[in-house]
Design a protein that fits this description.
Layout: H1 4-26, H2 30-44, H3 50-63, H4 71-87, H5 91-108, H6 114-128, H7 130-159, H8 195-211, E1 225-232, E2 235-242, H9 243-250, H10 260-267, H11 271-278, H12 296-324, E3 326-328, H13 329-339, H14 348-360, E4 364-366, H15 368-373, H16 380-383, E5 389-392
Antiparallel strand pairs: 1-2, 3-5, 4-5
Helix pairs in contact: 1-2, 1-3, 1-4, 3-4, 3-5, 4-6, 5-7, 6-7, 12-13, 12-14
Domain Cullin family profile: 49-282
InterPro entries: Cullin, Cullin-like_AB, Cullin_homology, Cullin_homology_sf, Cullin_N, Cullin_neddylation_domain, WH-like_DNA-bd_sf, WH_DNA-bd_sf
GO molecular function, one term: ubiquitin protein ligase binding
C-alpha cells in the first residue's frame, strides 16, 4: 500500500465511530465494550500486512512531522498508533519492523523530534511493559552516549592538534551489540577502505581505547553514510551517499573511468553490490520499467522473526511447565496465549511444533498414559492429539 497513513487513519475513524455510537446509545456498557473491542480486533487484523503498515505509518509520522500544523496534530497521530497497536495481534512483527525503521532514523538523523519518538515508546511501554521496549530505550541511550562521546572526541583531538590533520569531518555512533537490529556481514572484514577512512577510524579507535578499557569496536561499514563535495567542470555538487557509494566515488579522484571489474578489485565489493549502489548515480533514459529491489531484506526479517517466535514460545512453555509440572495441551494453549498476548497469538499448530521440539530436547515428555495409547507403528509425535498431557522433566 502506497499511503499507509490513509489506511491507519481510516481504521481509527471506523473504531471511533462505533465507540461513539456505543457511548451514546448504551452508555458504553461493559458487555457492549467487550463485544466492540472483539469486533474491532477482528476487522483490524483482517489485513495481513497491518503490522508493517503501522510501522511505516509511524516512520512517516516521525520523519515528516513538520508537515503537520501543530504539536496537537502530532500527538493525535501518535495516539492513533497506540490505538491500532492495542488491537494488533502480531505485536512482535510490528516491533521488529518498527525497530529497524527507528534504527535508520537514529543513525541517519531522520527523526524530526526525539520527544515525539520517546512519547510513542512510553505509550508502547504502558501497553506491553518494560521488557517489550527495553531494546528500543537502549537504542536512545546509545545515541545520547555517542553524542557526548563526539564532544569528548573533538576536545581530545584539539588537545593533540589533530583537528587540522584531515579535511574530513566524521561522526561515530557506538552502538551496543545485540540491541540494534543491524546485521554484521562478514565481508566487511575484507573491504579495502580508502586511506582517509582508515585514518579517521584509527584515530577514533585510539580515542575510544582511552575511554573504555576492555571493549572492542566492530565496524559496521554498510550502515555508514556521508556527504561528498564533487566538482564537475565549473560546477560543484553535494552528494548524499551511502558507504558503498562514498568508497567508489572517492576512487574517481585519481581516475576518469573505472570498470566494474576494477571497482571490484579496488574496493572488495561484490559485483552485485557495485551494480546495486552505482545504479542511482548513473543517469540513464528510463526506457524500461524499473523493477523494485529484491525482497531479500524482508525475507531475512521474516526468518529472524520466525526464529524469535520459536524461542519465545519454547520459553513460555518451559515457564508454564516448570510451575505446573504437568499440563494438558489445551491448558498450555490457553496459558501461553495469555502469557504472550502482548507479543503474538500462538496457534495450536505452532504450539504443537514447539512442544515436539522440547520433547526432542528432553525438557518435557508425554505422560505415560499417552504413550500407552500411542500406536507403536507410528512415531509418538504423529499420534499426539490436542488432548495430550505433558510432564516437565528438565
Amino acid at each position: 500500500m502506497r499511503h499507509p497513513e490513509e489506511y491507519i487513519e481510516a481504521l481509527v475513524a471506523v473504531r471511533d465511530q462505533f465507540y461513539d455510537v456505543a457511548k451514546r446509545a448504551f452508555g458504553l456498557d461493559p458487555l457492549m465494550r467487550t463485544a466492540l473491542d472483539q469486533a474491532c480486533r477482528l476487522f483490524t487484523n483482517s489485513h495481513p500486512s497491518l503490522p508493517e503498515l503501522l510501522a511505516k505509518y509511524t516512520h512517516v509520522l516521525m520523519t515528516q512531522s513538520a508537515k503537520y500544523a501543530s504539536d496537537e496534530c502530532i500527538e493525535k497521530r501518535v495516539e492513533y498508533v497506540s490505538v491500532v497497536f492495542c488491537l494488533l495481534d502480531d505485536k512482535d512483527v510490528f516491533k521488529a519492523m518498527y525497530s529497524k525503521l527507528l534504527s535508520k532514523r537514529l543513525i541517519q538523523g531522520g527523526a524530526m523530534s526525539m520527544d515525539v519518538e520517546l512519547s510513542l515508546i512510553q505509550k508502547l511501554r504502558d501497553i506491553c511493559g518494560c521488557e517489550f521496549v527495553s531494546k528500543l530505550q537502549k537504542m536512545f541511550s546509545d545515541k545520547i552516549i555517542s553524542t557526548n562521546a563526539h564532544l569528548a572526541y573533538t576536545t581530545w583531538k584539539e588537545e593533540r592538534d589533530q583537528l587540522g590533520s584531515s579535511t574530513v569531518e566524521c561522526w561515530f555512533d557506538v552502538l551496543t551489540a545485540g540491541v540494534w537490529p543491524i546485521p554484521t556481514p562478514t565481508q566487511d572484514i575484507e573491504l579495502k577502505l580508502p586511506a582517509v577512512c582508515q585514518q579517521q577510524m584509527h584515530l577514533y579507535a585510539t580515542f575510544y581505547g582511552t575511554q573504555s578499557t576492555g571493549r572492542r569496536l566492530h565496524w559496521v561499514h554498510h550502515m555508514s553514510h556521508g556527504v561528498l563535495r564533487m566538482v564537475l567542470t565549473s560546477r560543484s555538487f553535494e552528494v548524499h551517499a551511502n558507504y558503498h557509494q562514498l568508497v567508489m566515488l572517492l576512487l574517481y579522484n585519481t581516475r576518469d573511468s573505472c570498470s566494474v571489474n576494477e571497482l571490484e578489485t579496488l574496493t572488495g565489493f561484490s559485483k552485485t553490490d557495485i551494480q546495486y549502489h552505482m545504479q542511482p548515480l548513473v543517469k540513464v533514459l528510463p526506457k524500461y520499467t524499473q523493477l523494485s529491489a529484491p525482497k531479500a531484506k524482508a525475507a531475512a526479517t521474516s526468518h529472524e522473526l520466525s526464529d524469535d517466535r520459536k524461542m519465545t514460545m519454547q520459553a513460555a512453555i518451559v515457564r508454564i511447565m516448570k510451575a505446573r509440572r504437568e499440563s494438558s495441551f489445551a491448558n498450555l494453549l490457553s496459558e501461553s496465549a495469555q502469557m504472550l498476548a502482548m507479543q503474538f497469538v500462538p496457534t495450536p499448530a505452532f504450539l504443537q511444533q514447539n512442544l515436539d521440539i522440547l520433547v526432542d530436547k528432553e525438557y518435557i515428555r508425554l505422560a505415560p498414559q499417552q504413550l500407552e495409547h500411542a500406536d507403536s507403528a507410528t512415531p509418538p509425535a504423529a499420534s499426539r492429539s490436542h488432548a495430550a498431557v505433558y510432564i516437565y522433566v528438565a
